[in-house]
Amino acid sequence: MDSEVYTYINQLSNPETRENALLELSKKRESVPDLAPMLWHSFGTIAALLQEIINIYPSITPPTLTAQQSNRVCNALALLQNVASHPETRSFFLQAHIPLFLYPFLHTSSKTRPFEYLRLTSLGVIGALVKTDEQEVITFLLTTEIIPLCLRIMESGSELSKTVATFILQKILLDDSGLSYICQTYDRFSHVAIILGKMVISLAKEPSSRLLKHVVRCYLRLSDNARAREALRRCLPDQLRDTTFNQCLQEDRSTKHWLSLLIKNLETGNNESIQISPLE
Q1: DSSP letter at 98?
Q2: CA distance linking residue 126 with residue 161, whole number of Å
Q3: Which of 47, 99, 168, 249 makes an SS bond possible with 256, Cβ 3.0 to 4.6 Å?
């Protein structure tokens, strides 16, 4: 197995054999536990994967990305996701600022299937990073534009992309430095609150239990901050206070529990919150 994997890894360095090697290696992500270190420590491999990403940039504007191009670059992104989630290579991945190469894909707005697949796969790489609950991941992401990019997708993406983008925001908020960052200024907080509010209104028309779960968890975490909690008392959507989501909540006890905690936080004015810079 290892010799076959190394053969495909070596083929990544050759533009003529790279496309097939990307496809074969992406199929082996689950079955080869140490694929990430093998990719990272082999000569020229990460450069080849980044070349695949950069080669797509001209197809973003104007949006001319084809299904074949999208599939090919998404196979490269799948391998980078493997590197991002592996404990031995994750720090190297961040130190090399590789997530930044994906941000142009998250800036796209075309609704065609190739672009949607590209955005979703790119979000998957960031999602794999935040899933690890490592402080260095949040610290890195807060130095980038990931929050406004996620908010943009949360407002206008497909349901699946919205779900992954909201999950990323949720993970950032659950970290103390992430909550502090978002609640540091009124502009940051209000941008998040406005998008979450729009999502609630949209979910009232087209329910999704999975997406609602992440939205409610974001609101609950924001309510841990004293000034954000005060603002939420005024701007929490009525749909979260009335019976709009009863059907969804019956099917998901954890979301129902989080929502009841959120309402309780807003009603009781619990003053136990993280001390951060005041909202301006």
Answers
A1: G
A2: 12
A3: 249
pLDDT digits (tens, 9 = 90+) for 245-265: 999 999 899 999 999 999 999
Taking the model in full, what pTM does it have? Answer: 0.93
Identify the domain containing residue 20 by its residue range.
1-95+109-114
Residues 277 and 280: their CA atoms lie apart, in Å, by 9
Sequence-distant (≥ 6) Cβ neighbours of residue 41 within 8 angstroms: none
Which of 14, 130, 129, 26 minimizes the C-alpha distance to 73? 26
Are residues 57 and 101 in contact, defined by beta-carbon separation less than 8 angstroms? Answer: no
Q: Is residue 203, in this structure, part of any structural domain at all?
A: yes
pLDDT value for 274? 35
Q: Both 190 and 239 in a single domain?
A: yes
Q: CA geometry: angle at 119 spanning 116 and 122, to 5°?
A: 145
Distance CA 113, CA 119 (A): 10
Low-confidence ranges of the chain (pLDDT < 50): 270, 272-280
CATH code of the domain in which 5 resides: 1.25.10.10
**Contact between 129 and 141 (Cβ < 8 Å):** yes
Same domain, 261 and 186: yes
Domain membership flag for residue 126: no
Indicate whether 147 and 59 sit together in one domain: no
